[in-house]
Amino acid sequence: MVQGLTMPAIVRWAKLDPDPTEFDEELLAEQTGLRAELDALPAVAATLDSPPATVDAVRSLLEHKLSRIHREDGHPELAAREPNEVDLKNDLQSALVPKKREAIDRLRREGLIDDVVQRRVQARLDLEELRLAPPPEDGT
Measured between alpha carbons, how far is 27 from 23 in angstroms, rounded to an integer? Predict the structure, then answer.
């Protein structure tokens, strides 16, 4: 467990070259997952009795995400994901999370919230940071 948690820090400290295929593999996984969602969409939508407009909106979103991914089998150096408005919004939100964290810490120091509430809110902030974090494009 400890080795698994410390390995990324050790790799950064050692200044080892990043795995050039990692980003390509991540994009392959995203492509495969999106295609699976698109394939399953009609059956799942029928099971849930989803309105056609909802199905069309979800299909459009999935196809848009898929269109932003560029990769070619055997050429990991070509792997790329086009940025879009969502990426820009995520970057801004991600930069704001530390300010939110500081405000919550201040509430705890001032005794306006107890430590249980602080930990619960901080756990949600941790998840928010993970959700907003951009994937590494250089394999690190």
Answer: 6
pLDDT in tens, 122-131: 999 999 988 8
Per residue in 56-110, pLDDT (tens digit) is 999 998 998 899 899 888 878 888 888 778 778 888 998 999 999 999 999 999 9
Segment holding 125, helix H or strand E = helix 115-132
The CA-based dihedral angle spanning residues 18, 73, 58, 91, taken in that order and rounded to the nearest 10 degrees: 20
Query: What is the token pair recorded at 21?
Result: 């295929």
Q: How far apart are CA 32 and CA 66, in angstroms?
A: 9
The Cα–Cα gap between 53 and 45 comes to: 11
Q: What is the pTM of this model?
A: 0.57
Collapsing DSSP to helix, strand or coil, 70 comes out as strand
